[in-house]
Amino acid sequence: MSADDRSMRERMLAGDPYLADDPELAAATTAAMDLAAAYNATTTRQQPLRRALLEQLLGAVGEGADIRPPLHVDYGTNIRIGARCFANFGLVALDVAAITIGDDVQMGPNVQLLTPTHPLDPRLRRDKWEAAEPITIGDNVWLGGGVIVLPGVSIADHTVVGAGSVVTRDLPAGVVAVGNPARVVRHLEVPED
Q1: How many domains does the chain have?
Q2: Has residue 193 got a pLDDT over 70?
Q3: Is the pLDDT of residue 182 over 90?
Q4: Domain CATH for 44
């Protein structure tokens, strides 16, 4: 791979290959890890501090969102969480690309939202080249415990993903999907708003 005139951060955010061990990116992820560690050390009695840390760590966090520690991110700033969302313990959101979570989303424990991709060529992997694809979670989605969402996936509004499922491709609105890879097993009646 050849570098162009853009910074590695610009390349990363554009979804183009970038060097993962770039000093600017390393500094940004270290800052995010420090903020996440401070957030993860809070208790439920420290709600104002917890909220302030979450607002500092993430790109945006909606009113009434509740993310139970521990929370693990790469950068934090590429994550947008909507209003009234709930994530149980152990959310891993690797936000090399944008992660957009709609309103009223529920996530069980140990959900993983993984945007990074790696080249198949072993030389490029050894040289620390990576890329990423964004993840979008629509409004009123429920991700059961241990769900893994892979790079580039969108899950549309009102969809339920069963515990332990691996979402490898987009899911339409108002369905139940389960398995590895997650497959639609049921269509839901979706109320009109």
Answers
A1: 1
A2: no
A3: yes
A4: 2.160.10.10
Chain segment 27-44, per-residue pLDDT in tens: 999 999 999 999 999 998
Return the structure tokens found at 63: 């009113």
Give the residue numbers spanning the domain of 130: 8-187
Residue 131, token pair as written in the block: 């890329």
The beta-strand segments (E) located in the chain are 18-19, 60-61, 66-67, 71-73, 79-81, 86-87, 91-94, 99-101, 106-107, 112-114, 116-117, 129-132, 135-137, 142-143, 148-149, 154-155, 160-161, 166-167, 175-178, 183-187
Q: What is the dihedral of CA 36, 56, 9, 97, to 10 degrees?
A: 70
Region 43-66: mean pLDDT is 95
Q: Is residue 193 part of a domain?
A: no
Token pair listed for 130: 């990576």
Identified catalytic residue from 72, 118, 158, 187: 118
- As beta bridge partners, residue 113 has 93, 149
Query: pLDDT averaged over the chain?
Result: 95
- Look up 118 and say whether it is catalytic: yes
Q: What is the chain's percent helix, strand, coil content, to nearest 5?
A: 20, 30, 50
